[in-house]
Specification:
Blueprint: E1 2-5, H1 14-36, H2 39-46, H3 50-61, H4 66-83, H5 90-111, H6 113-134, H7 146-159, E2 164-171, E3 174-181, H8 184-192, H9 212-215, H10 219-231
Antiparallel strand pairs: 1-2, 2-3
Length: 241
């Protein structure tokens, strides 16, 4: 099932275009690093590595050295922020950007450009922190905007619970246009995570290993549902908050 659009009118989703552009530009950079054989090192450095974040936090709390606290603030947050715009496979970036476009543009309309950007970044950061906390022994890096996208889904379903999504059903070489309730894509989102290894970049380290930390991006649903009533600028009549 491939979502295409909802029926709600929206102005130019400038922030979404910007986010998609940044993600695609960085992914092109990743492809270049892959050709040079340095992509694994780059993703290990700038991806979310829970064990490394845990080690930095332990050093900071067990030492009176201010430099350790500066490192705790800068290094983990830097990697969590940048990992939000990095992806490990063609299927992951295409899936995330498609869901961002379909479900995000109506949220950008009711939040406004600035608030939507803040919503997106806060959701991604909080999900990343959750991933680091829930599996502190994981040594493999995690990358992708999965957490921010699930937050968008959570906020969308509370704002437009009865929305229908124009979709296409691919059957071999036939594409059938259908309308599907938005709620369906809540479960479909988690199903398609399994296929995000398709078109995986060739790197020596394992990225986005299917661990407890990886599936923690599902926390984005709760984060999005919590943030949207607090941040909404133009509350839809259909909203259930």
């Amino acid at each position: 099932m491939i979502p295409l659009s909802d029926r709600f009118p929206s102005r130019q989703p400038l922030v979404i275009w910007g986010i998609i552009g940044i993600n695609l530009a960085l992914f092109m950079g990743e492809l270049n690093l892959e050709l040079k054989g340095t992509l694994g090192e780059f993703l290990t450095t700038w991806g979310i590595v829970p064990s490394r974040i845990h080690a930095i936090a332990t050093d900071a709390m067990s030492s009176n050295n201010p430099a350790n606290w500066v490192a705790l603030i800068i290094l983990p947050l830097g990697s969590i922020f940048l990992s939000l715009f990095l992806h490990s496979s063609f299927s992951q970036i295409l899936g995330n950007m498609l869901f961002l476009w379909v479900f995000g543009k109506s949220l950008e309309e009711i939040l406004g450009h600035g608030r939507f950007l803040i919503f997106y970044i806060i959701s991604g950061l909080l999900t990343g922190v959750g991933q680091a906390l829930i599996d502190p022994t994981l040594t493999n890096p995690l990358v992708g905007s999965n957490g921010a996208i699930t937050a968008i889904l959570g906020a969308y379903l509370l704002s437009f619970p009865k929305a229908k999504i124009e979709s296409i059903l691919p059957l071999v070489i036939i594409f059938i246009p259908i309308e599907i309730p938005a709620f369906f894509y809540l479960s479909w989102w988690f199903v398609q995570q399994i296929f995000y290894g398709v078109g995986r970049l060739e790197i020596a380290v394992t990225i986005n290993q299917f661990s407890l930390a990886y599936w923690t991006h599902g926390l984005g649903l709760l984060i999005g549902a919590t943030l949207i009533p607090l941040m909404v600028k133009r509350k839809p009549a259909t909203a259930i908050y």
